[in-house]
Specification:
It contains 16 helices and 23 strands. The chain is an alpha/beta fold and about 525 residues long. Among the domains are: about 110 residues, Ribonuclease Inhibitor (Leucine-rich repeat, LRR (right-handed beta-alpha superhelix), Alpha-Beta Horseshoe), CATH 3.80.10.10; about 190 residues, Alpha-Beta Horseshoe (Leucine-rich repeat, LRR (right-handed beta-alpha superhelix)), CATH 3.80.10.10. InterPro entries: Leu-rich_rpt, Leu-rich_rpt_Cys-con_subtyp, LRR_dom_sf.
Length: about 525
């Protein structure tokens, strides 16, 4: 399967492929190919095509294409997005001799696959966004000294893995968005002084951690959206005199920060959607003659403010929804939460009544304060979040809250005392959280508590004693709580108001179960 002497480009285009010329050759994009309508074989490889992109597609077609590409010396770049990656497919790609750019984003690409692909130490660009790469896998990158571009967005990368990148001194473009990194972790990158583009959106970095960016004086493009960066933190950005593009969408900056941004001498693109800026801040940007693009959607900027701005800088392409949205702090709070990938449900009057986090939700430090401003909330579901004491204490402001789930969340147990003031809270789910007897002491004093789930927590027989204060408790789940044993039978048996009790996979014996059935005849017990 060699390169055809006569180009087969037309044959590929007839299948639905799209071509694009660029400096080093021709790119062929197979995203729109209808594989189901094609014959069993594929055309041979056109000699002029140096870059191949495949978005999705059947496993057999992926195998066929890679078999064709294997050994082809003219190919410089291969992108396999949203496909099923296996050892055989990675092996084929590894056998493309002059390959310098690979893209496996949104695939099942793993640490083992990375080790395999890094056998080609001439690679200059690797895109592994939304894959299965972890800290341990990054050790393979240590030898990739020619690497100029690396995308690790939305992977479970921590400081433990970041130190493997410290020797990649040729990097110009690094993406770490959607990872749980803090500002302190960036110390491992201080040798990467040639960085020109850096993506740190939706991480755990706050304005206090921005000082770590001082290593990167050559930055031209910086993305910090979705982080808890406040006005004071923006001051240090003045040192980036080469900065041309800055993304701060979804941060809590105000008009005060605009004074600093207006001093960036080369700034051409500013993305400020979902911030707290208003017409006052927009007017300060009217003097920035280098500006070409501006995004102020989901802010307090008005249509009149936009009109005044464009009179001064008519060349700026501005994105705004000022004419479509009413001026409302509640509307803006909803926008910010949605930008942080939080699901909201509203009642017939447009008031938010239910909130739920997702796997893509940003760290709670970026949005928890905003959530507690939505006083109409009745149902809140949080999962796998780190909650600090100061922020969580503000949950006491949600006076209408009736149901709260904080599954797999980490928070100081003493902070749970904040729930005791919520008069309407009746349903509480703490499964898989680090709750022990200490937290149970506060939980039991929630006035209207009727349903409580404590599955897979660290509560013990001794802690169950606190539940005697929960006089309205009707439904209790202690499933898979290993420290709940027959020693807690006396306490459980005294909770005569219980209607449902789940003690599956606890330390309670068969005879203990029988005892509970006798003591609580009106309670349905799952054992």
């Amino acid at each position: 399967m060699s390169v055809s002497e006569n180009s087969n480009l037309d044959a590929w285009l007839a299948l639905g492929a799209r071509s694009r010329s660029f400096e080093d050759g021709l790119e062929l994009n197979l995203a729109n190919v209808d594989w189901a309508r094609q014959s069993s074989s594929l055309p041979t490889i056109p000699v002029e095509v140096t870059s191949w992109k495949m978005q999705g597609g059947p496993d057999e077609r992926v195998r066929q294409l890679l078999s064709l590409l294997k050994g082809q010396k003219q190919i410089k770049a291969v992108a396999l997005r949203g496909v099923n990656v296996n050892e055989a497919s990675v092996s084929c790609i590894s056998q493309i001799p002059e390959l310098i750019e690979v893209d496996f984003s949104d695939t099942n690409f793993s640490n083992a696959h990375l080790e395999q692909i890094c056998q080609n130490d001439r690679l200059q660009s690797i895109n592994l966004a939304e894959t299965s790469i972890t800290d341990n896998g990054l050790i393979c990158l240590k030898k990739m000294r020619q690497l100029k571009q690396l995308n690790l967005n939305k992977n479970k990368i921590t400081e433990a893995g970041l130190h493997y990148l410290e020797g990649l001194v040729s990097l110009r473009d690094l993406s770490l968005g959607g990872t749980p990194l803090t500002g302190a972790a960036l110390k491992w990158l201080q040798r990467l002084v040639l960085l020109e583009k850096l993506d740190l959106r939706h991480t755990h970095i706050t304005h206090n951690g921005l000082m770590a960016l001082t290593y990167f004086r050559r930055l031209q493009k910086l993305k910090l959206g979705g982080n808890r960066i406040e006005d004071d933190g923006i001051l240090m950005l003045k040192q980036f005199v080469r900065l041309e593009s800055l993304e701060l969408a979804g941060t809590p900056i105000t008009d005060q920060a605009i004074e600093t941004l207006a001093q960036l001498p080369r700034i051409r693109r500013l993305y400020l959607a979902g911030t707290a800026i208003s017409d006052v801040g927009l007017s300060q940007l009217a003097g920035v003659t280098s500006l070409l693009a501006l995004d102020v959607r989901k802010t307090a900027v008005t249509a009149q403010g936009v009109e005044n701005f464009q009179q001064h800088l008519p060349q700026v392409q501005i994105k705004t929804d000022a004419e479509q949205k009413p001026a409302s702090s509640v509307i803006r709070s909803i926008d910010l939460l949605e930008m942080n990938h939080i699901q909201l449900k509203s009642n017939q009057y447009g008031e938010p009544i239910a909130l739920k986090t997702t796997e893509q939700t940003s760290p709670a430090t970026h949005w928890f304060d905003v959530m507690t401003e939505l006083r109409s909330l009745k149902n809140v579901e949080l999962e796998d979040q780190h909650l600090d004491s100061e922020q969580f204490s503000k949950i006491r402001d949600l006076h209408h809250l009736q149901a709260l789930s904080i599954k797999k969340c980490k928070l100081p147990e003493t902070t749970l005392v904040s729930l005791c003031t919520l008069q309407n809270l009746g349903w509480l789910d703490l499964r898989d959280s680090a709750i022990s007897d200490v937290g149970l002491k506060f939980i039991s004093r929630i006035p209207s508590l009727s349903n409580l789930c404590l599955s897979r927590t660290q509560i013990t027989d001794q802690g169950l004693i606190h539940l005697k204060h929960a006089l309205l408790l009707k439904d209790l789940v202690v499933k898979q709580c290993a420290y709940v044993t027959d020693d807690g039978l006396e306490t459980l048996g005294s909770l005569e108001q219980l209607k449902h009790l789940d003690i599956r996979n606890t330390g309670i014996s068969q005879s203990g179960y029988q005892t509970l059935c006798e003591k609580l005849p009106g309670c349905k017990i799952r054992y």
